[in-house]
Amino acid sequence: MTSQAERQSLAEKTGLLPEEILRIEEALGRPPNETELALFSVLWSEHCCYKNSKRELRKFPTQGPGVLVQAGEENAGALDIGDGWAVVFKIESHNHPSAVEPFQGAATGVGGILRDIYTMGARPLCFLDSLRLGEIRGEDPGVRNNRRLLRGIVGGIAHYGNCVGIPTVGGELTFDPSYDGNPLVNVFCAGVVRHDRIQKGAAAGVGNPVFVAGSRTGRDGLKGAAFASRLLGSDSREDRPAVQVGDPFMGKILMEACLELFERKGVVVGVQDMGAAGIGCSTSETAARGNVGMEIDLDRVALREPGLHAADILLSESQERMLLILQQGREREAEEVFAKWGVPLQQIGKVSSDGLLRCRIGGKAVVELPARLLTEDAPVYEREAKTSLSSSEAILVERPLGLTECRSSWMAIAGLPSLASKEWVWQQYDWMVGIGTTMGPERADAAVLRVRLEGKTKYLAFTVDGNSRYAALDPYRGGEAAVAEAVRNLAVSGARPLGVTDNLNFGDPYRPEAFGQLRGAVEGIAEACRAFGLPVTGGNVSLYNESPIGAILPSPVVAAVGQIERKEEIIPMGFQREGDRLLLLGGWGKGLSGSIYAWEVLGRRQGPAPMVDLPQEQGLCSVLRALAARGVVHSAHDLSDGGLAIALLESSLTGTGCLGAEVSLPASPTAEELLFGESQGRLLITVAEEEKKAVEEECARREIEVQSIGWVTGSWLRLEQGQDRLEIELAELGRIWKGALTELMAATPKLD
Amino acid sequence: MIRARVLILPKRTVFDPQGEAVRHALGHFGLAAVDRVRVGKEIEIEMPGEGDPTEIRSRLETIARDFLSNPVVEEFELHIEGVP
Amino acid sequence: MRWGVVVFPGSNCDRDCLFVMQKVLGQEAIAIWHEEQDLPPVDAVVLPGGFSYGDYLRSGAIAAFSPIMGAVGRAARSGLLVLGICNGFQILCEAGLLPGALLTNADGLFHCHPAHLRVENNCCLFTRSFASGEVVQMPIAHGQGRYYADASTLDRLERSGSILFRYCDVHGERTREANPNGSVANIAGICNEEGNVAGLMPHPERACEPLLASTDGLRLFRSLASTPLEAEPGATYARSAAG
Prior knowledge:
By secondary structure, chain A is an alpha+beta fold. Chain A has 25 helices and 28 strands.
């Protein structure tokens, strides 16, 4: 056994804790050798084993009637969508690599989540992204760097997603100075698979051969997983060798080869994509899941350059590689398929019976470890959490603006990068390939896809949401709000929610405040999911999101998947017909705290986060679905960032032609609160005049407040509150809203 | 061992947005009076130096002209080292 | 009518094209692997969109030298109908079956959105179900779609009526703003002088169902599908093989 001093010094070198090294020694009955220690240093990092967050993640509800593969079982969760088919989906972050090299960081993030989905046997259907960046307005070096990051991230997502031919159909992008130099890149992917074709990430069958398929192994991303579990220091640019380079062409042909091979029943016993810690992680995980061992001959791994050590080969994060465990005797079939697609396939070892991961190089044994010790038996910690809520005092505006005076504020928020149209972003993504995108970017609150399944047609809806302002004020409510908004976005698109996946982006877990935020958000998400009866099918945790200027806003992100029965039930967010009634469901709301208006225009980043009334949210969604089923809703849009003002703007500018509205506001609360307040659980819908009564009855049945607030007409937004009037031409609003981001990003092409 | 280098540039008559962006950026480095920047690529081919040198050269010429560059929009230069 | 859709490694609109031909048009369509030395009996070949060989070297450059393109070139010279969509258009230019080249978009960015196109010439088999001068809508999705040809080539294209589609605004005006990629003379699609090989950057297969906002693309496929051919599927091919 090593001495305490030796362990201390090893701990500093590996990033492990001295007690973790002791724990390894006790489990092995000997000190680990250098290669083994390197494996532990990565596999026992937060990024790989969730040691700091696992206890919290266990709070999520994971069961449900449609759950086919639940959280933690495989690379992604799977839910039933009927007729023997399942939707497989997951969200994952690539924050740290994107901070260092935005283009490759984001591109490999897309490649990674793609492999997670088709590893399950599913043909990928679409991507969505949740992006957060620092301030991009102005000419400070930091601001220019944020623009450079945004340009690189969007370019990288486009580069990979477009090339592999999977549409990027939606997402979100907001800005806050806390993300300066520490952007968030959360990528979601969904696919579909027949129940009986779901692949397993477990090894089985002693003697079965183990193969690596895809790219050769190089030095890419060595210790990348450990890197993701460190704070971003100012020397992060020096860390560049840790960033992997993506090859979307290999990604595409590797995917096609794997999917074609999966069609041949019985050839593939188990399959696991290689992400963090490459061969080391995928071999130990598949062995541990299958309760078997594995013998790996590292000399047989095809290398891109000579001179890699055993640890380098085991931990390399070279992209576009898969681990395949094949049925002995059927190797030829796999070789045929991979040769057809031009994808290298190389046997590197075989399945053994003793539960040990054994690796040899140059004929010498370098690793002999219980596979479970590396994965399932990794340490789990309870970290200290400190809950800190923002003051519960509501924001008081001393001299509230009258309706007429709200004009300039309205214009101002319409041009905020967080609220402005994201056309500059999504036009760079091929959001149509696959000819299923029924509701693409900025057409409905959720993206809606038509999915063709061997003769059957399904409609699936996807959304990704999170509000860091609310989470900063109150992490628990921020968690609840993320789920509630995602479910609302599905409902207003006509969909019934099936389940969610989450991405938890927080700061250093060793800081009790940051850990308290993580815990609060998890509990909020868990509670909301229970209320809606939704399983969390998996997700991702990204901690240590801190740069020298401090931690990011706590950023829980939730992606939700829903299903729509018939295409007639799909609802757009834009106004469709002149003369339609404009109905507000869920009440006028009250207060400004937490709103983007309070933060960005008033500069008041305090007060309680908006309340989330879960039973009311459920009621709203039931009303919407009932109305959608009857086909009476012409458009529906939820009130979220920017409140009623932005909802009206978006519905006007994204509909057929350019249709505005006339709206009467009640005398109280103030015009500012009515227009910009972000009270939760509210929707704006339009119906034909003769359907108004039916909607009111449906709302009454579910105890949902409903107001008729005006009608769809004209090429302006015309509002009245008592004697006060406000009229804005849509052309004027449209110029600001549509142009803001494009102007910021296009004005200085490639110079930031 | 033969090392062939093929330098490929967009023709002067063809608009090169990458070159234009770089030219613009050079101003930020105090180099404002730049007339033109072209961004192209260089391809390096390494192979054993066996066979008839004239034939190797002519084959590389063909490859560079017909495959590695596109004569509609690009021009190329071929440099060969190590031909016996 | 029997369609053949060539699949290169990296093609990603091949399945979409097959779906449109089989399910929307209700016709026979088969996938053809890029390593085939010969074409199976088909009446028209479609080179679909995507990133063949990752667009490495130049878009379409490596695919243009694949075995199947030898067969496509021979058949095209004997009159077989060949349609290149997006990456397929790039491959046809690289293979020398259509004049000109497709370069990186003028602003350096990938563009994906519906585009208005003016039908310049409806005398060719590919556009005969449109009216000349008509404005239609089909999506574009490319990073390298800036059509380029030198002045004399351009002149020949104009005079032979080989320009099929140009980017335009909603009123059919050929404006600078309506040109998404900086193509010379707003050119979005062309055909050869014989009129049997056509290429366009917009995606007609993405505009074939009301659910996807436009059905103008379907009219392009129907133009070809209603082409009077000998009754037997593959007759054109048989003729070309015999010739």
